[in-house]
Design goal:
By secondary structure, the protein is α+β, with helices and mostly antiparallel strands. It has helices at residues 7-11, 27-30, 47-56, 117-128, 130-137, 199-206; strands at residues 69-75, 78-85, 103-110, 140-145, 153-154, 160-168, 173-181, 186-194. It has one domain (7-209). Strands 1, 2, 3, 4, 5, 6, 7 and 8 form an 8-stranded antiparallel β-sheet that branches. β6 and β7 (173-181) form a beta hairpin. α4 (117-128) crosses α5 (130-137). The longest helix is centred in the middle third of the chain and has 12 residues, at 117-128. The radius of gyration is 16 Å and the shape is globular.
């Protein structure tokens, strides 16, 4: 769904949040924002441990058949996805460890209420808990795109433009991206949490578009 250089494609192999309702947000999304649990399954952990964390996370609320990926319709026009991956944030690399999670991402699509940075931030806190949220809020912003004065980064859809940023915290790295239509309204947003050693490759991919 990006958008060729965007978050969706970069996390997945190259072959190929929960939204917290704001004051005028959807009650359906608000119902997902349960008490966040300790973040004991994060990038760098094993696949088995991450599967267990997903299964027992009251905010993610996976279906019985969900393992490392969740994709569900929350309400008409509102979709939530989550995926934990053994692949680096920048894509497939040789000799990756098939038993270690290196990146996790979640996304919100909402055609009823605009996606905002605050919604994504609060979704991060709902899923991962206060400790990881603090790491994210205190993280250093390494890159924002588009650069000031530059045209917003185009996508596969000529009616959408992308704005995003990459941060490095003490524990993890973070990538947030929001897609806007030409009227300036955002219906899609996503965020990734990943191991900091994968930052250089991601920064190299995004460098032409950022500052």
């Amino acid at each position: 769904m990006r958008f060729k250089r965007g978050l969706g494609r970069a996390i997945a192999p190259k072959s190929g949040p929960l939204a917290i309702a704001l004051k005028r947000g959807s009650l359906a999304f608000a119902a997902l924002a349960l008490i966040a649990q300790p973040s004991w399954a994060l990038p760098g952990q094993t696949v088995n441990l991450t599967e267990s964390w997903i299964r027992n996370n009251p905010t993610l609320k996976p279906a019985p058949s969900d393992r490392l990926a969740i994709n569900r319709l929350v309400a008409p026009g509102q979709r939530f996805t989550f995926q934990a991956s053994v692949f680096p944030i920048s894509g497939v690399v040789p000799n990756q460890n098939p038993r270690q999670i290196r990146s996790e991402r979640f996304s919100l699509a909402d055609h009823a209420n605009a996606i905002t940075v605050d919604r994504l931030d609060e979704s991060l806190r709902a899923i991962y808990g206060q400790e990881i949220f603090n790491d994210y809020r205190q993280a250093t912003v390494l890159l924002r795109y588009p650069a000031r004065g530059a045209r917003a980064n185009p996508t596969d859809n000529p009616n959408l433009v992308l704005r995003g940023e990459v941060r490095q915290g003490e524990r993890f790295a973070y990538w947030q991206e929001i897609a806007y239509d030409r009227a300036g309204t955002a219906y899609l947003g996503r965020m990734a949490v990943f191991v900091p050693e994968d930052l250089p490759a991601l920064q190299a991919q995004l460098a032409p578009y950022g500052e």
